[in-house]
Amino acid sequence: MKIIHQPADLANGNRKACLAIGMFDGVHLGHQQVLRQAIEDSHRNEGRSVAVTFDRHPASVISPDRTPALLQTRAQRLRAIESLGIDAALLIEFDTAFSRKPGAEFVRELADGFGAIHSICVGANFTFGHRRDGNVGLLRTLGQALGFHVHGLQSVSLDGQAVSSTRIRAAVRTGHLDAAGQMLGRTFAIEGTVVEGDRHGRELGFPTANLDTNGLALPPNGVYAAHARLGQATHRSVLNIGLRPTLANPKPTLQVEAHLLDFDADLYGQAMEIELVERLRDEQRFGSTDELADQISRDIERARTLF
């Protein structure tokens, strides 16, 4: 999949663009339906399928205090889109100037930039443009004027409710990871850059990779069996999410740290994706660091039985 930052970067020749537009946080079953429609259109009409998405969540610019915790990093989102078979992703910088652009202007600029659009695929409730002045109805009006088709696809339902990023965030936050996985169409995973920690894990005999997960949706605090992916390699691991109450700290902060089984290397600065396998226990306070170390050993042994 080619990543482009303006429509003109896609060398189309005489092939029309088949667009799927959205934030696509989570790339869940509903998003996949929209993206696959664009892919199908491109195959039928000898076009190029393009996911039109944004470098950050629009709320982070429009109403920062209401920005939702994201289900994926940008890199995860683009990989998930690519896995469906999309030809290219137009990654738009969503800044203040872009947030003030009327919906009709946005679409006309896409049409001019790509040269020719065959179709635009969105969810039926899709809104866009300054003050959300655009919707599927406006897209269809513009389509008649500019010569493209519009697919406004109904939501995918699961257990009688629409699949949505909001619903998945709630499932993750409450620890219903199986439900989140069903709506995502894959196991829920957390990705972050490995950052330097306080080395308490190494002092206990269990070195950990500390992940920067700022802004991401996280499951409840606790200990989890997990798979840790580094590039193409996957390692069995035990993940701790929490405040580490046994360790003295007057200002505890949330930590997401993974102990990779049978592995010890410098991972600072690397991106690590953690796929949760099973919750092992709640976070708890122990009477001493020796008791904590004993429990970690038991956690590891239990995790080994799950892999």
Structure commentary:
By secondary structure, the chain is an alpha/beta fold. It has two domains: 2-162, HUPs (Rossmann fold); 188-306, Riboflavin kinase-like (Elongation Factor Tu (Ef-tu), domain 3), CATH 2.40.30. It has helices spanning 29-44, 59-62, 74-83, 96-99, 103-114, 136-146, 165-173, 177-184, 200-204, 289-306, and strands at residues 2-4, 17-21, 48-54, 88-92, 117-123, 149-153, 157-158, 161-162, 189-195, 209-212, 222-230, 233-242, 255-260, 271-281. A six-stranded parallel β-sheet has the order 1-4-3-2-5-6, with helices on both faces. The chain has a six-stranded antiparallel β-barrel with strand order 9-10-13-12-11-14. α5 (103-114) crosses α6. The model has no long low-confidence stretch (mean pLDDT 93).
What topology does this entry show?
Blueprint: E1 2-4, E2 17-21, H1 29-44, E3 48-54, H2 59-62, H3 74-83, E4 88-92, H4 96-99, H5 103-114, E5 117-123, H6 136-146, E6 149-153, E7 157-158, E8 161-162, H7 165-173, H8 177-184, E9 189-195, H9 200-204, E10 209-212, E11 222-230, E12 233-242, E13 255-260, E14 271-281, H10 289-306
Parallel strand pairs: 1-4, 2-3, 2-5, 3-4, 5-6
Antiparallel strand pairs: 7-8, 9-10, 9-14, 10-13, 11-12, 11-14, 12-13
Helix pairs in contact: 5-6, 7-8
> Secondary-structure element order, as H and E?
EEHEHHEHHEHEEEHHEHEEEEEH
Residues in helices, as a percent range: 25-40%
Show unreliable segments. none
SS-based structural class? alpha/beta
CATH classification, class level of the largest domain: Alpha Beta
- Overall pLDDT metric: 93
Approximate shape: elongated
- The CATH topology annotation of the largest domain reads as Rossmann fold
Major sheet details: 6 strands, parallel
Radius of gyration: 22 Å
Strand content: 25-35%
